[in-house]
Amino acid sequence: MTKGFIRVGAATIITKVADCEHNTNAIIELIKKAVHQDVAILVFPELSITGYTCGDLFMQKHLQDQVIKQLIRLKKETQSLDITFIVGAPLAVGNALFNCAVVISQGAIVGITVKSHIPNYSEFYEKRWFEQGHNLRHSQYIIDSVHVTIGVNMLYQHHAYPEATFGIEICEDLWVPNPPSGPMAVAGATLIFNPSASNDLVGKSEYRQSLIASQSAKTITGYVYASSGYGESTTDLVFGGQCLIYENGTMLSKNTRFVMENQLVVGDMDIERLLSDRRKMGIYGDGQQQDLSRYMICPYQSTFKTLMLNRYVDPHPFVPTDAEKLHVRCEEIFNIQSIGLAKRLEHIGCQTVIIGVSGGLDSTLALLVCLHTFSLLNLDPKNIIAITMPGFGTTDRTYKNACDLIKQLGCTLKEISIKEACLIHFKDIDHDPSIHDVTYENTQARERTQILMDYANKANGIVIGTGDLSELALGFATYNGDHMSMYAVNASIPKTLVRYLVNWVAHHKAPESAKTVLLDVLDTPVSPELLPPDAEGLILQKTEDLIGPYELHDFFLYYCVRFGFSPSKIYHLANMAFHDLYTEATVKKWLLIFYKRFFSQQFKRSCMPDGPKVGSINLSPRGDWRMPSDGVVRSWLLEIESL
């Protein structure tokens, strides 16, 4: 298994109704193709050996005998193939016929899952031929002189990697109010396979996809679905042969329906990612043993090969790639920020806010949030006191943008230079102002914060924090300087998303007169402007030159905190996501920096101010993230250095 990934597949064949030999030939052809593509587990459609539309032919003894013959052939002809696969077959047990999914691995039938819910409405008449699986319970089925466990409550567990446990629900089982995959997931199944025969009607495909996406997300599973296609009887129905692979609600792969050929789709499922989400939720751990007792566990054997992952890794996981989704996301985040601030102001009876505006992205976004909040509360924007505090590193560009933006938004502009106060402070602490070290920089940040706090007392207002999630993760904030505020509206927004939010507000919320300024802010390099500009008056101190590209750090943060992945896996994913932008050596360099800063700067997060949570990651010590300030990073760094 490569970094917790397992390759799964869904296949659909050109069916010949009641021609078991032909169908089995097609199944074997696709199994070999899947093996060539390193698929570990493969699922075929419901009743794939016979075809779903056999009707009363299911009751023919000859057809039933042919099914057994082809199952024996299947296990023998695939004995040397390193794959586990699932085929659909009608099997007679005692007094009844059952709709079954047969699991075969390395020359053995591992187990047989029986369909639980038999549809008998509209175009479906399955109860005419098949009994409900619940009427069977657990039993033994003898095939080729071997006893095989058959029943409804079946789980299939890998012999060496139990996390790759899978369950099977067959077609209609998914469509009922309480699908079997729910308790299967609680009992430990991370993968669900669904051999199906779902005919196509106008709009049904979209509903089917939403159903699978929802069930995959609700159960936090990888869901692999294969449905009957071309060749099924068209007496009354047409089958499009849909194959779908989802991971926790996100589609990984799909095929094209209504194709007159055998089809195979594959997807690389991240088992570690699924387990990470489950382990954060008590329901899975609390209920596993109770639910597990209901199931027969069937071990299967296959080798999880080292994979060249065939999976898109988004380099910007915080930012939707789809323009419409990005629009919706930005609007929702902006509203969460604004409603959070509105509640705080209303609760404390405050009608004035104080905010430091530098002309950079973060303070610009915070100012825009304040303006929208005041609009929601019907407050005068003049009570937004925006203070620009030029220092030794302030450039004309950012100074002008800050002043122009405050004026265009109708807020109250205050200009308070910090230069003289900082020089007096340098004298008080015997610091040479020509030495541009951390004392030189942090003195400016703390002087600005002191001005904001004291002005808030004077104006009976609160200080709005401007720092973002990425700065908190890296500790790129001055302790008791810009690190501190009375409400931090950007605290859970990563730097890569701040830019898109400001751009969204510029085009959808801000006054037209402010748009030009906002677009220039977007074009300004990210900098704390604590060091003097260059000879041409341009920004000399660029944050990303010091600590690395924010897009890399946001990527590291997402997978470190959201899923708890190991450094080596994050490194592997980052190289996939940024293969055309950064070398492996560059990724490794900044990954080391990320972990060093993430661990060493926890003390700043342990006392961070309140702020609204907007996404899946929040570093508030009162919310999602409780980390000791003296945690040791050594073993994480050793793993990275060994790469």
Report on the biggest sheet.
Answer: 8 strands, mixed
Number of domains: 2
Q: Uncertain regions: pLDDT < 50 for 5+ in a row? A: none
CATH topology of the largest domain: Rossmann fold
Architecture per CATH nomenclature, i.e. the level-2 architecture of the largest domain: 3-Layer(aba) Sandwich
Spatial strand sequence of the major β-sheet? 6-7-5-4-3-2-1-14
Total beta strand runs: 20
CATH secondary-structure class of the largest domain: Alpha Beta
Distance between the termini: 18 Å
Helix content class: 25-40%
Catalytic activity: deamido-NAD(+) + L-glutamine + ATP + H2O = L-glutamate + AMP + diphosphate + NAD(+) + H(+)
Pfam families: CN_hydrolase, NAD_synthase
Binding site for L-glutamine: 121, 198, 204
EC number: 6.3.5.1
List keywords for this structure.
single chain; elongated; Rossmann fold; Nitrilase/N-carbamoyl-D-aminoacid amidohydrolase; 21 helices; 39% helix
Written description of the protein model:
- With 643 residues, the protein is of the alpha/beta class.
- It folds into 2 domains: 5-300, Nitrilase/N-carbamoyl-D-aminoacid amidohydrolase; 323-641, 3-Layer(aba) Sandwich (Rossmann fold), CATH 3.40.50.620.
- Helices cover 39% and strands 17% of the residues.
- It contains 21 helices and 20 strands.
- It has an 8-stranded mixed sheet with strand order 6-7-5-4-3-2-1-14. It has a 5-stranded mixed sheet with strand order 9-10-11-12-13. The chain has a 5-stranded parallel sheet with strand order 18-17-16-19-20.
- Helix 8 packs across helix 14, helix 11 (419-428) packs across helix 12 (438-459) and helix 18 packs across helix 19.
- The protein starts with a strand and ends with a helix.
- Residues 6-271 form the CN hydrolase domain.
